[in-house]
Structures are given as structure tokens and as C-alpha cells.
Design brief:
The protein is built from nine helices and six strands; from the N terminus they run H-E-E-E-H-E-E-H-H-H-E-H-H-H-H. It is an alpha+beta fold. Strands 1-6-4-5 form a four-stranded mixed beta sheet. The longest helix has 38 residues.
Length: 370
């Protein structure tokens, strides 16, 4: 017990949630029916529905798993291999793959077995590709290659050191998969990550340089523009001084100023043309690079009750959500199921049950996901 008589919990308790609207622990009537409209639920009622519905779903799923095991069948969940193609032109600059792997030899697997994911960094292209790419998923294939463009392969862009950005990458026609086994797959993944980062960073730098070069091209500056600039910089006094300077100019001075401006414009435009050429080569190189990774999702066994989402359990720094926020997050026909799969840590069986129940409460038609 902490200061002021508050009870301090030093560990996570599954299914616990702080309540809102003046409700305190021990004062909630768990037998009280929930309001008919989920959007009128409090945070406590959201937690009650989540735990009751997910517990019932887990009991049903585990009964089916036990029945299948007793009959001599494997888990009902079908293993589907997922192929994710990562393209250099779409890869964010300064971004890694965001994959961490279990040490070799775990779970009685031989050291040569395909690597198994221990963590996937959220909000990365791979994490956004499919919610089934999660802890326990295996990487069973990897190939880094150059996508052929029309005719002969275009000239690849070069880095500041002069080396080709696509050197050492096989062309699509002759590309071969990574050698089988953990070491071969991890080596190909490292090579692919380096290639994606290299072309994406080069493309980002080329775009920045082209933008900077375009901004440095001098604008046309006639007498009226010179007077306006003088007024903006120094006010009416500066504008009057500039007007007197323009009136005193000789023809030779006018010609000299025009020649100077033309020379500076020519130099700036040459720099801009060079920057655009570098950008075109970097874009061509980025369009060529493709890293194809094949994942094998972990087979589902016994289901577990998923933890209550942080936004409704009092653990989020964004505050506590109510029934309206709950329905907006998980009952949307387009994105609700995907969000539930993430909340259920990739277990599509529990997520689909919760989604169908939410859609029934909301009066919408549930849609499946790929």
C-alpha cells in the first residue's frame, strides 16, 4: 500500500482496467445488462464486453482445437505463406527492416532451421503489410533482385563515392533465392536491407538537392521588381534610394548588370540540370531494387484471452476511451477487423469472433480480410 492508502501494483494484471465516471472497484454490478447501444458504454462496460466475449470465443476455439487433436488432425488454422515485395522507390529513407529474430536452437529447432521472428517493429512497411507477420512467424524465403525495365538495364545511380547503388544485385532474370537455412536467409536479408536503404537514402538526397538547386535559380529582376524588393527590405527610404540609383545608371552599367544576371542564371540552371539528372538516375535505380520476403505465419494452437486495448484499460497516455471510441476503432467495416487482429496479437480466430459480435451490435455487415 502506497501513500494516502493507495494500492500500488508493480506488475501487469491481465484484464484489469481503471474505471471512469465515478465508478470504483467493487461497486460495479457485473450482472447489470449492458446498454443496447455500444456507443453509450462507459470504459468499464467496454472492458466487461471485451472480457466476456473474448473468453467465450477462446473457450469455443480451444474446444475445437482439442477435438481436432483427439481426432488426429493438426490445428485447423491453415498455413498460408505470405510474400511481401519491398521496392526501393517506395522505401522510406533511413529505415531498417525492423525484424528481430529468436536465437538459433530454440524450441528444439535445428540451427539450420529458418529464422523465427521475435519482434516486428510497429509502423514499418513490413508490419503494415500484414498483421500475421508477428512473433513466431518464420522467414522461409528471401530474394534480392533488379526489376527489368524496358530493354537493357538502365544505368544505375552512383553514390557520392562513385560506386554503383545497384552493384552486386542480381537481375530478375537470373536471380536465385537465398541459400536454405538460417545463415543464408539472414545474409540475404541483411543484403536486401542495405540495398533498400542505400537507394532510398540516395533518392531522398537527390530530391533534396534538386529542390535546393531549383530555389537557387535567380528570379527575373527588372526595375519594378528591384524597387519592390528595396521597399520590402528597407522601407520607403530604401526604395527612394534605389529609384535614384536606377535613374543615374548609364547604358554600360545596365548592360553589365544584365550580363551578370544572365551569367548567374546560366550557372544556377546548369547546377539544376545536373541535380535533376542525378535525381533521374537515383529514381531509376530505386525502381529497380526489389526485395521479396516469404513468411510462414505461426500455426495457431490454443487461443488465449487477449489483453484489453490500452486505450480502454487505463494504461494509455492518451486517456480512457468510451464506447464511442471503441466502436470507431474496431467496428469500422473497412478497418475494424485489421485493428482487432493487431489487438489480438495476430490471432485471427478470436479477432473475427469479436468483429462479428461488434458488427451485430452496430447493425453492420462484417467483411473479411485477406
Amino acid at each position: 500500500v502506497g501513500p494516502c492508502g493507495a494500492r500500488v501494483l508493480t506488475r501487469r494484471l491481465q484484464g484489469r482496467a481503471s474505471l471512469m465516471r465515478g465508478e470504483v472497484a467493487g461497486s460495479v454490478d457485473v450482472d447489470r445488462p449492458l446498454p443496447p447501444s455500444p456507443r453509450d458504454w462507459t470504459s468499464a462496460e467496454v472492458v466487461r464486453w471485451w472480457l466476456a466475449t473474448s473468453t467465450a470465443a477462446v473457450e469455443r476455439i480451444n474446444a475445437e482445437v482439442a477435438e481436432a487433436a483427439a481426432a488426429g488432425f493438426a490445428a485447423a488454422e491453415q498455413k498460408k505463406r505470405l510474400r511481401v515485395v519491398l521496392r526501393g522507390a517506395e522505401w522510406p529513407p533511413r529505415t531498417k527492416l525492423g525484424l528481430s529474430f529468436e536465437p538459433p536452437g530454440l524450441a528444439d529447432a535445428p540451427p539450420t532451421a529458418p529464422p523465427t521472428l521475435s519482434r516486428v517493429t510497429p509502423r514499418t512497411p513490413i508490419a503494415d503489410a500484414s498483421p500475421l507477420i508477428r512473433r513466431g512467424t518464420r522467414v522461409v524465403g528471401c530474394r534480392l533482385a533488379l526489376a527489368q525495365e524496358e530493354g537493357a538495364p538502365p544505368e544505375g545511380a552512383r553514390s557520392d563515392a562513385g560506386e554503383s547503388l545497384t552493384a552486386g544485385i542480381d537481375h530478375r532474370a537470373g536471380a536465385s533465392d537465398a541459400p536454405p537455412g538460417r545463415s543464408g536467409l539472414l545474409a540475404e536479408l541483411r543484403r536486401g536491407s542495405l540495398a533498400l536503404t542505400r537507394v532510398a537514402d540516395a533518392l531522398d538526397a537527390a530530391e533534396s538537392e534538386a529542390t535546393r538547386a531549383a530555389e537557387e535559380v535567380p528570379r527575373k529582376l527588372d526595375d519594378d521588381a528591384a524597387l519592390l524588393r528595396a521597399w520590402v527590405v528597407g522601407g520607403e527610404a530604401a526604395q527612394e534610394e534605389e529609384r535614384r540609383r536606377i535613374a543615374r545608371r548609364t547604358k554600360e552599367e545596365v548592360d553589365a548588370e544584365a550580363a551578370g544576371r544572365a551569367a548567374s542564371v546560366a550557372v544556377a540552371r546548369a547546377r539544376l540540370d545536373e541535380a535533376r539528372a542525378v535525381l533521374a538516375r537515383a529514381a531509376a535505380a530505386a525502381r529497380q531494387v526489389e526485395l521479396e520476403i516469404t513468411f510462414e505465419p505461426a500455426a495457431f494452437g490454443r487461443a488465449e484471452v487477449p489483453r484489453v486495448p490500452r486505450h480502454f484499460s487505463g494504461a494509455s497516455r492518451l486517456g480512457q476511451g468510451d464506447g464511442k471510441a471503441f466502436m470507431n476503432a474496431f467496428a469500422d467495416p473497412e478497418r475494424g477487423l485489421r485493428s482487432l487482429i493487431v489487438a489480438c496479437e495476430g490471432d485471427t480466430r478470436v479477432a473475427e469472433t469479436l468483429f462479428q459480435a461488434l458488427c451485430a451490435l452496430a447493425g453492420t455487415t462484417p467483411r473479411t480480410t485477406d
